Amino acid sequence: MGASIAFHLARRGVGAILVERDHIGAGATGHSGAIVRQFYESRVGIRLARKSLAFFRRFQGETGVPCDFRRTGFLTGSRLRDLPAFDALVGLLRTEGVRLERLRPKEAAGMEPQLDVSDYEAMVHDPDAGYADPIATAAGFAQAACRDGAKAIEGEEVREVIIRRGRVAGERLRGRDVISSERVVLAAGNWTPWIARQAGVRLPVHFVRGDVAILRRPPGSGAPPRIHFDVYGNTYSRPEGEKDVLVGYMDSGPQAALRGPELLDNALPVATGRDLLSRLARRFPIMARAQPRGGWSGLYDVTPDAYPILDAVGPTGLFVAVGFSGHGFKLCPEVGRLLGEFIASDRKPDELAPLRAHRYREREPVVPESPFPALRGRTLP
Ligand SMILES: Cc1cc2nc3c(=O)[nH]c(=O)nc-3n(C[C@H](O)[C@H](O)[C@H](O)COP(=O)(O)OP(=O)(O)OC[C@H]3O[C@@H](n4cnc5c(N)ncnc54)[C@H](O)[C@@H]3O)c2cc1C
User: Fold this and answer.
1) Quick one: which of 297, 136, 127 has its CA closest to 208?
2) Distance 335 CA to ligand 1 centre (A)
3) Residues near 294 by Cβ (< 8 Å), separated by ≥ 6?
4) pLDDT recorded at residue 196
């Protein structure tokens, strides 16, 4: 997010300094499944996702650097009891301009021969969805930002936002160096609430562990499969290159909640890897013979409605981009564009109104226009 915001600011001629305590992509971004889908239940999500997907497709033209976006297509299905809601959601997505095909399970099985569709009543296919290389994306935005006059500093940690007479004056780094600036955007992922708190701003963000396993597809599996959301079996999956599949949980469960923003161990627990494989094999039976190839864990910054907070907060000149709730990677191009516009013009774009910081206090969280019951309460990738 920080790199995309810097890119969009630089493009507008605003001097931007990107400060990263580790290396670009070291946070959730580098641990992301990096699925780029448009299948959202709310208009605000669909719109951010649609515009971002269009940007991913022209990423190299915009930045001069490839992000390795691969169009794979996206499939998901509904059981009989959820069909009315599923059809309402398909309708909403179509009115928002998403090019969707509603399929009978038999038709979907023709497209995806390894998929068990026996419990589905209907399916939907988004041919435009895909995935990108998240590190190449973040690094690409940063490189392009620097080419347009921004500066990126890696290996420096921001300790606090400097505030003078109610206005942002810059930020102090760990070694006590100071960067002077009238505006600061906190886009430090899981660490944003901590930095914001030093500036007197409380953000309703909690931390949830997300696990990802990589499985080598067995011989005879055919072409790489499309992205699949199995809302009933609690997995999402996508191809990883030509030979592997990446799989994670749609819902990490309450045991995945953490007290702090730091994950002590990024390694995938062996039992979790096994569980993901057996769940995936229920939906793709051939994967029962898949070879585990490890995986990793990362951390989601989750808000009460699972949508981000993109707003000006606290002292004049302070902005936050936080709370992406496990699905922010795909939104980074449009989030960067909108925040770039907000920061450069001091006028909040209308698109950001539903994502204001005070919405929880005002009891106006983002509520999906077309909720799909099978997804309720889940943190989707
Ligand atoms: C396992 C997993 C799978 C996911 N899968 C998907 C998916 O398929 N599709 C999708 O759209 N999203 C997915 N997500 C979510 C997505 O990765 C995140 O929403 C997104 O990457 C968040 O980006 P960010 O820039 O806000 O945060 P981060 O990527 O965490 O970036 C914040 C950066 O700030 C730096 N930082 C922290 N503190 C400081 C400080 N004090 N000073 C300086 N720098 C600091 C960190 O080092 C970090 O690099 C997934 C996330 C995880 C963990």
Assistant:
1) 297
2) 14
3) 213, 214, 268, 273
4) 98
Q: pLDDT digits over 176-217, tens only?
A: 899 999 999 999 999 999 999 999 999 999 999 999 999 999
Residue ranges of domains in the chain, CATH in brackets: 2-67+133-205+304-375 (3.50.50.60), 72-129+206-300 (3.30.9.10)
Instruction: Verify whether ligand 1 is closer than 6 Å to residue 310 (CB atom).
Output: no
Q: Which residue lies with its CA nearest to atom 50 of ligand 1?
A: 32
Low-confidence ranges of the chain (pLDDT < 70): 377-379
Show the 3-state SS of the chain. Answer: CHHHHHHHHHHCCCCCEEEECCCCCCCHHHHCCCEECCCCCCHHHHHHHHHHHHHHHCHHHHHCCCCCCEECCEEEEECHHHHHHHHHHHHHHHHCCCCCEEECHHHHHHHCCCCCCCCCCEEEEECCCEECCHHHHHHHHHHHHHHCCCEEEECCCEEEEEEECCEEEEEEECCCCEEECCCEEECCHHHHHHHHHHCCCCCCCEEEEEEEEEEECCCCCCCCCCEEEECCCCEEEEEECCCEEEEECCCCCHHHEECCCCCCCCCCCHHHHHHHHHHHHHHCHHHHHCEEEEEEEEEEEECCCCCCEEEECCCECEEEEECCCCCCHHHHHHHHHHHHHHHHHCCCCHHHHHHCHHHCCCCCCCCCCCCCHHHCCCCCC
For residues 134 and 59, give the distance between their C-alpha atoms in angstroms, rounded to a whole number.
12
Kindly tell me the sign of the dihedral angle through the C-alpha atoms of 60, 62, 67, 69: negative
344/229 Cα distance (integer angstroms): 38
Q: Is ligand 1 within 6 A of the CB of residue 2?
A: yes
pLDDT at 49: 98
pLDDT at 268: 96
**Nearest atom in ligand 1 to 19's CA:** 43
Name the residue with the closest Cα to ligand 1, atom 53: 298
* pTM for this prediction: 0.97
- Residue 96 CA to residue 43 CA, distance in Å, equals 7
